[in-house]
Amino acid sequence: MNDSKTREARLMLAGLGILVVGALVGGGMTAVTMLGGGDDPRPGRSSPAPTTVGPSTPAESRQAAMTPDKARKLVMEKPAGQKDGLSNGFSEGPVGAISTAVHFWEEYAFLDDRKARQQLEAIVSSDAEGYVDEQVSEVRKLRETVGLAPSGGTPAGITFSTTVNAVRATSLTGTEGKVVQIWINYDRYATKADGSPDDEPLKDEDTDLLLKWQDGAWKITNEAEFWEARSFPRAYFPDSHVSWADGWQQVRHAG
After folding, report:
1. What is the pLDDT of residues 148-183, one digit of tens each?
2. Which residue pairs, CB below 8 angstroms and at least 24 apart, start in 191-196?
């Protein structure tokens, strides 16, 4: 890859933090309890300080010392199939919702407006009027920001991969769990034409999605009543008991 292509790849990654992270905002269901979740509206990147609230039992002490990287990972469901560029066929339960969000975010064609539209039309709720067009517009804006034509595929010789590290999920409809907000912590990497990785990947990024169970599948939505019920988590740190207490849980794909 020549120097201009290398710079282009870096610009793409740098631009993601501003444009794409916010391109598919949704509306929190704790991945551990599937209920509750923190409502602290002050997400940040400073390491949280330990807190102590009076005496505790041994069990409480063990729980307080738990962190996302010590806990068992949440295993994603295997998709039943693939259609329209996306994995599909996940269950109605909370793990199905999380699996839908994780697979979508790792498969989303954030630089290919035509493929993105195909994916979005397959997964966006019919109640999210105008949402597909809004997201395709964001893809095109990102392309223009990095010097590409507004419409087209991923530049030749550059490939991207997204890895979801952890999730924080919260029901927005009480115990029913029919609409959920899923926060995602992820990394995104670029690979050059010669197979070597870009040296400035996106790391430790956060975004969230609102999903509702509709017509036998989890669909992305942005309906106002659920949008207003969104919550904002404490920052995710794999070795933080505060992150664990706030509902962050690491994920892995089924083997």
Report:
1. 999 999 888 888 999 999 999 999 998 888 999 999
2. 191/158, 191/159, 191/160, 191/161, 192/1, 192/5, 192/6, 192/9, 192/157, 192/158, 193/1, 193/5, 193/156, 193/157, 193/158, 194/1
